[in-house]
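**Folding the chain**
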Amino acid sequence: MTGLPIGTCYNWIHLGKLPIRPKNGKAERVLINMLALLKEAELSTLVNH
């Protein structure tokens, strides 16, 4: 994510604002589920119209 401090991203993940894919181990990287974000954005535009 461009322009956001990494701490903010971690905080949003902890708060559930960024959907992540389940990790299989501690060493795995966090993967943000961009498809879920896209669907959420699409739904919010449909509701707001």
User: Anything to note?
Assistant: The chain has a mean pLDDT of 86. The radius of gyration is 13 Å. Residues 6-48 form one domain.
